[in-house]
Amino acid sequence: MGRYVTVSAKVKRELLEEARRLGINVSELMRRALEEEVRRRRLVRLEERLRGKRDILAKIDVDEIVRLIREDREA
Questions:
Q1: What is d(CA 9, CA 29) in angstroms, rounded to the nearest whole number?
Q2: What is the pLDDT of residue 59?
Q3: In the predicted model, is pLDDT for residue 44 greater than 70?
Q4: Dist. CA 10–CA 16, nearest whole Å
Q5: Ordered DSSP codes for the chain
Q6: Is the pLDDT of residue 1 over 80?
Q7: Distance from CA of residue 16 to its chain's centroid?
């Protein structure tokens, strides 16, 4: 795994104390939340890129491509 860096966030003291009382591992929770958000945003970006490509792919005539491939193979 890559190198680690320290990330900090300011939260109300009461919130941190309550989280500790509830047995919440704040570091693990923050790490997981950040990983999930990064994963989610990557998927959103990928979906956006695919939407743009769909318009391009819709213009391609599949029958024409098949015909050209067959002609090429026969040549």
A1: 13
A2: 84
A3: yes
A4: 10
A5: ------------HHHHHHHHHTT--HHHHHHHHHHHHHHHHHHHHHHHHHHHHHHHHHTS-HHHHHHHHHHHHH-
A6: no
A7: 29
Per the CB < 8 A criterion, the answer to whether 15 and 24 are in contact is no
- End-to-end CA distance of the chain, in Å? 52
Own/partner pairs, 29-34, CB within 8 angstroms, 24+ separation: 34/7
Say how far residue 30 (Cα) sits from the centre of its chain.
18
Q: How many CB atoms are closer than 10 A to CB 16?
A: 13
Q: Which two three-digit tokens encode residue 70?
A: 């067959």
Residue with tokens 């026969």: 74
The type of residue at 32 is R
